[in-house]
Amino acid sequence: MTSGYREGRLGPGSEPAVERRIGLVALAIVAAFSIFVLRLFQLQIVEGAELRSRSERNFVRTVRLEAPRGDILDREGRVLATTRPAYRVQVIPNEVGGRQLTYGLLGEILGRPPVELAERVGSPRGRARFQPVVLEGDLAYELLAQVESHRYALPGVVTDIQPRRHYVERERASHLLGTIGEIEARQLASDDFEGYQAGEIVGQFGLESRLESHLRGRAGGLNLVVDVSGREIEVLEKIAPVPGGRAVLTIDLDLQRAAEAGFLAEEVDGLDKMGALVALDPRSGEILALVSRPAYDPNSFAGGIDSQTWLELIGHEWKPLRNRALSGQYPPGSTYKSIVAIAGLAEKEITPEETVFCPGHYRLGRRIYRCWKRGGHGEVNLLEALKGSCDVYFYQLGVKLGIDRIAEYARRFGLGRATGIDLGGEKGGLIPTKAWKERAREEPWIKGETVSAAIGQGFNLVTPLQLAVAYAAIANGGIVYQPRLVKRLETWEGELVAQPDSVPRSRAMVSSQVLDVVREGLIAVVQGERGTGARARVEGVEVAGKTGTTQVVSLDLVKDLEKEDIPVRYRDHALFAAFAPAEAPEIVVAVLVEHAGAGGGAVAAPIAQRVLARYFEKQPGRFDAEVNTESEGQGEVQGEGQGEVDSDVGGEGAAEGAGAIAVATGEEG
What we know:
The chain is 36% helix and 20% strand. The chain is α+β, with helices and mostly antiparallel strands. The protein has three domains: 2-46; 61-249, Penicillin-binding protein 2a (Domain 2) (Alpha-Beta Complex), CATH 3.90.1310.10; 253-294 and 322-490 and 497-668, 3-Layer(aba) Sandwich (Beta-lactamase), CATH 3.40.710.
């Protein structure tokens, strides 16, 4: 019965049906395995390299650790430029998942349109897919916390801390410190930047550029284990970055602050005073303060300057990026009379006692050149001519000497040539000679141009730095130093690396007797009764100096205008150069105020006085210095040294032939 039951259960013809089922199952199994094999082939052979790379990236991420840039300090160790932490938000394009959601959430946190973020990242190909794109370079800590708290929903978004340059004094000393920025293609191709990579931040201008190799430091790195969301799991390896070295400058921050405060003390037609100031030690050439106004905030460049700020800077009417102390070229005005006096004494064309009568004008042929003091100075010797800045005295002395001998002595004192300061962008100025004019203009030199040149007008052009170097040589006995800004270089731990020496470039080869006479005249300018530099006096200190005023345009252009109606860019420049203590000089200050519209004694001398007073205030018990805010001497110096010509007697102006140069210089300012 059992056998019969089984036979009845299977029934006739049941074996083929079973075989068919087994065949279908086998076919299904083969198909499934085929799919697995094909998929395995695709993953391991077709996409294997990419998936392997992706797997490794998802597992280990290499992060570059930028080295903090070395600090820049003043001579007393006060920080001018340092490094602070900056929080960055970056996106690794290849790791971004759900672009719309990711950029939407990130945009909400950062307060930026998601479309803007997506456009910033773009759709890079090749290796660029794995390079992080910075979306925010200096994120507030509160926003950083929000990004970190949402990291689980932001695949491909990473944050880190990077060193960021910080200029503590903002605009102060900006032109000497300079700027940093991303390395340019031309720099990468240069041997000077061997070993640098695209995207690195380097010094671009000023000391940041000149000291790049010392300030740079050495980058480090991290190997991180991360999960698929980009969250850090573990640090596998870390190489710590090595900070850059420190640079201790010759700058005295107290004097720098005093100098810049002088330019900001009063406005000219609603504008802060523009121009430059250089203070240096005549015994070594060390720069104590260097100012160029208007200035800019180098912090704007620290994280990559935005286009709007850049356009505002380069399009500004008064060119705040220009370092006027080194590249501004101006007629020296009556400050040049000290050089002419030295030439006259050395060449024995005058004696200190010899007098000249100044009736308020000087006739040369059919032309009449007027003194700045319309009523004249009367009988004056050299001392009185320097004290009162008598133009007529120096007109006559200039004609006696001739332009070539004047130029020779000017160059002996460093005028008309670059000083050699290691800062970049320095201009050489111009001290004209007969040969120069014949070569440059294909015209002969005329005697009237010597008259103009003798009071620092005409073709003469000097920089404020050159003027400071020249007066330092007058103060120190004739040594022309190469000015320097670096006192010493140190490692980040404070170990000495280098200590530059003072470099005398040349000697003026003028006797001490000649220099003593001229210094006596310069003392009278400041300390003497009704001297034109009286506003530079410092209580308890004997100051020597010389005022100056230079025309920007020909007098014919503005002679019919009231002073207040003359456009700012057509107004006269004001100059003052001084040293103290007169008997044993320790500091020289040269000031130029662009388009001041008043004499050097009224505008430039008070700025110098602030710097001198601050210098001696820092030496308690030795000097009793205080800032002089009185207006003594102001009325005496209006227009001095401008070399006006009476056009009613056939004159064209003392700066004839040089008007175009003066105008161009003023426009550059």
